[in-house]
Each structure stands twice: as structure tokens, then as C-alpha cells.
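WARN retry 2 of 3 for item q-0093 after timeout on previous attempt; input resubmitted unchanged.
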Amino acid sequence: MLSVLIETRNDEEGLARTLASLVGGAVEGVVRDVIVCDAGSTDQTHRVAEHAGCHYVTSGIAACIAQAKGDWLLFLEPGARLAEGWTDEVVAHTARQTMPARFSPARGNRAPFLSRVFSSSRALAEGLVVNKRQAAALAKGASSAEALARGLATRKLDAEIWVAPRK
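OK item q-0093 returned
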């Protein structure tokens, strides 16, 4: 079972798009719970989370991880969308691996070569699948999910993600 954590701030539309891509995983029983980690939103983010049945937490990434019920966590940026078939790949990975993993960018979503070379990368742009124990240890020194994921050695999953647009 997987807990999904989405750290957001004033991105109700992006949150709704991401939550919609998780419906298949919830129906299949892969997604156990979704936790929206809010970093001070002033828009209607809390309403989007409540209407979708998510847990809504405002007290930091460590508190979000502590509330997660799954043994594995999936961190996503608001606006990111998982491509169809992602559940099979994540289930297979969590059954055989202990190391974290990231999704592959969707073929139609890849930025041009020079844009990739000259832009700074976001650690959560391709999502992050990590076991809860490791995430809890990393969260002790991290102020955000982005900080938790930065510099982490990961395996690349065969499942694709439509990366959230830059803000």
C-alpha cells in the first residue's frame, strides 16, 4: 500500500489535476491515502483536498510523513500527472526494491535539450517513491519535500509522469 504526499502552496488547479491522475490507483487498491502538505496557501487548496477526501496537514513535511499509513510514500508536485499503468510499475518496484525511485518523463512532455541543460532541475519533478522509514529519517534535516528529495540516489521506473509546469 502506498501513501501519496503532495506538498503545495496556492496551487488548487494543479492539485486537482494531480489528484485526478491518482483515481485509478485508488480504485485498484494501491493508493491507501493521500496527504496534502500545505505550506501556507491562501487560495482554495484546502477545499480541493477536502472534497477529494485527502488528509490536509499544515505543520510541515515531517508531520505529513508521520500521518502516512502506507509503508511506501509517493511524493508528487501539484500539477504532475501519472500516465496510465503507473500502478503496476510501482507495485513491482516496492515488492523487490528498497531504494527510492523516480518516474520517467512522458515522451510528449520532455523539454528541448538546451532547456534541460541550462535550467535548474526540481528534485520532485519526476516524483519520488521512497519507503516511509527512509523518508522519516531524511525529513529530520529537511524543511520541505523538495529538500528531502534533493541529491537522493534513485532508480528510474518504466512508468511515465507528465511533469508539472514550472511556476
